[in-house]
Amino acid sequence: MSRSPLAPSPAASPAPSAAAAVPADVPADVPEEVRAEIAALFEQAVAEHRTSGVTWAVIGGHAHDRPILAHGAAGGEHLVDGAPAPGSGPMRRESISRIASMTKSFTAAAILALRDEGRLRLDDEVAEHVPEAAGLLRGTQHPLLADSPALTLRHLLTMSAGLVTDTPWGDRQEAMTREEFAGLLAEGLGFVHRPGTGFEYSNTGYALLGRVIDEVAGAPYPQVIHDRFLRPLGMGDTAFSREGLPEDRVATGHRLADRQDATRFEAVPFDAPGVYGAMAGLYSSVDDVARWVRFLAAAELPPERAAEAGAASAGGDALLSAASRREMQQAHRLQVTPPLPAGPDGVSPGFDRVRGYGMGLVVERFVDLGEIISHSGGYPGYGSFMAWHRGSGVGIVALANSKYAPAVPLGMQALRLLARRVPALLTAPAPEADPRALEAAAAILDWLRTGDDAPADAWFADSMDLDQPREERLRRRDAALEAAGLRREDLDRLSAGSAEVIGRAHLRWTLPAADAGPTPQQLRIDLEMDPRRLALVQAVTVRTAPVT
Questions:
Q1: Mean pLDDT along residues 1-9
Q2: Among 46, 223, 363, 405, who pairs with 331 as Cys (CB 3.0-4.6 Å)?
């Protein structure tokens, strides 16, 4: 299989370098007492018989050289009648487990790599690459599809195809052959909405993508994933078949019987690889998943930082461009989440998160954690979860060996515990100001202090004087200073370098009011640059605001 290698004015105060933007006080390790608290979460899940066993790890972020900062395990690799099976051992860091739907991120990555090479387009019709899919929409009598667009690769990648959610059924189809899959497509599929109009999770959609990879790459899907990603990234514990994996390290999966003690865990047979492996077929270990997470997360780093990150991104762009890895991690399709419980007034205060599906990955924004990229996996006998904090790259992986084990809530509890107990670990790098914004900042502060027209003439965009005459701007400045109990001389305490960077083109300064009062106030000055390459100032706002 062949693969093509893919290939402003000086600022008054220097902008922080990319390397300097990584917080200097990021801990190198998870403190032992925090590791013990995380371990207790997983151990309690085993003690309460919510899972038969689990292995987990905290994944090092952008500022770390080590892929794993902490790890632990609980429970057993194979239970019989609630006790370890003869010859089996406890779950451990080296245990290999099914990662189920976390496999979808590999499938999406392969599609994007083929796109980058010019061998397909995301807006190609699926039937262009998999002829047996030609009849999925054409000729159907389904009323939802009468005027629908053709089903595309983008629809499948982003869970926008409208195919019926098939989690219990799809989980049992892994061994389906190409011929059987072609027959399935010929019989037609069910739809819940028109393609491109909503979110609906589909395993069959990712099985279709696996067939696209077969055809476009000219090699079996498992070989493509191995050659493009697993081998180059050193993921020797990751495979679609147990053959070649160390037998004594592969954890047996367990179903949940209708009992409440440890005897509820009953071993399930292993499936054979087939077409549906593209949606959930991989085995892996926490160390290998950490390699994959760091490879994906490193796409957020500037090139010079990515080079410093070492193994996290070594050769990354040769495997899949950073731009494509970032594309996977954007919310392309909104997922509806239930509202929070209603308050005393009977009205819900809103939602606890914004959630969307990217390409083989879930993208969420939480009030307490910020942006989290993730994917879970549930399979007969297994439950898994990988997640990482976009800003810091720090993540968690949990691999459990019982059906639909609580890997997601345990993993999210672990991330929140890290955020509470070691907040610097999940601190995103501060945004960097554009050098031209810093240059403008020095001039605008000079204008605010003196009212001299020269800085304004040099840096005001043409819209500024049209929006407000300069004399009025200066009167508003004086009114805000008076309201805060400050004098114009207090502006001497501000400099371009002391501004808070809201964004590359947006800076803010604050000064506490002279009289704190019952509701503390502050003077706030915002500067915003216009969108041109040689940007000028499009907004300067001076006002009082509550201290937040």
A1: 32
A2: 363
